[in-house]
Write a structure and sequence with these properties.
42% of the residues are buried. This protein has a seven-stranded mixed sheet, sandwiched between helices. It has a two-stranded antiparallel ribbon with strand order 6-7. The longest helix has 16 residues. Strand 1, helix 3 and strand 2 form a beta-alpha-beta unit. Helices cover 32% and strands 21% of the residues. The protein is built from nine helices and nine strands. By secondary structure, the chain is α/β, with parallel strands linked by helices. The chain has a single domain, classed as Rossmann fold, CATH 3.40.50.
Length: 258
């Protein structure tokens, strides 16, 4: 697991250099609008998160979990939240710090692993925002347990996850528009394909990816103690034929009971 964390740290640092869309910071205009209450974010590729999934942001202690890139944390801070951002990539964190410095925001950043948030105390946060980044860790159940630990009773966690059906496909055939199941779930870039295949299919700088089962993605939240209170699906048109047939992404809202 330590090797995966280190490899993905370097990969996401490289993604910042390559200007991956999830590494591009919000503008000063977006921050200014957020200060007036006009803001929106995504957990999954395209759908805006419903505003009633968020608490009153002003004064709330918010954890942006594995959410670096200068996109969500600055808007939460501009909306009045006390924001802590934990991310594995130093360069992703630098994007948020750049926005904070540029626009006069306060964001506390921590370089860390979402599976082991030892830097954070129990029962600290009112709200956790966790986008589709848990596909980059080998054990998503550890993420849910850590999120439950650091969340206050009565707090909520909203998360984006990837339906494992997308990971079953033969990626080489998918690039040709052919959808054929090949891989067993759970999927792992480390064991389901060779390193040579991974680089040929996705490129050297692509992070190591894992396709978790729905039992771990959804059931793992309830196993950790959460109550699921919200759910929707999302697609990513233009990213392959599968997205024309099924919504591959899922957003969940979970409550830590009092």
């Amino acid at each position: 697991m330590d090797d995966v964390v280190q490899r993905n740290k370097k990969s996401w640092d490289a993604q910042v250099e390559e200007k991956n869309q999830w590494t591009l910071p919000v503008s000063s205009d977006e921050v200014a609008r957020a200060r007036k209450g006009d803001w929106s974010v995504v957990l999954t590729p395209t759908k805006q998160v419903p505003r009633d999934w968020f608490p009153e942001m002003k004064g709330s202690k918010v954890l942006a979990l594995a959410s670096g890139g200068g996109q969500q944390a600055p808007l939460f801070a501009a909306a009045g939240a006390d924001v802590t951002l934990l991310d594995n990539s130093p360069k992703q964190l630098e994007q948020d710090l750049m926005v904070a410095d540029r626009d006069g925001l306060k964001i506390h950043t921590i370089e860390g692993d979402m599976m082991n948030m030892h830097q954070l105390a129990d029962n600290t946060f009112d709200f956790i925002f966790h986008p589709c980044s848990n596909c980059f860790v080998p054990d998503v159940k550890k993420v849910w347990k850590e999120a439950f630990r650091v969340l206050k009773p009565g707090g909520t966690l909203i998360s984006g996850v990837t339906n494992p059906v997308g990971f079953t496909l033969d990626a080489a055939l998918e690039k040709q528009g052919i959808l054929q199941m090949k891989h067993k779930i759970p999927y792992s870039d480390l064991t389901s394909i060779t390193e040579e295949e991974r680089v040929a299919l996705f490129g050297y700088n692509e992070p190591i990816t894992f396709g978790h089962s729905l039992q771990d993605l959804i059931g793992g939240q309830t196993e950790a103690g959460f109550h699921l209170i919200g759910f929707y699906e999302d697609s990513w048109k233009g990213q392959g034929r599968i997205h024309e047939l099924i919504d591959v992404f899922i957003a969940t809202r979970a409550l830590k009971p009092r």
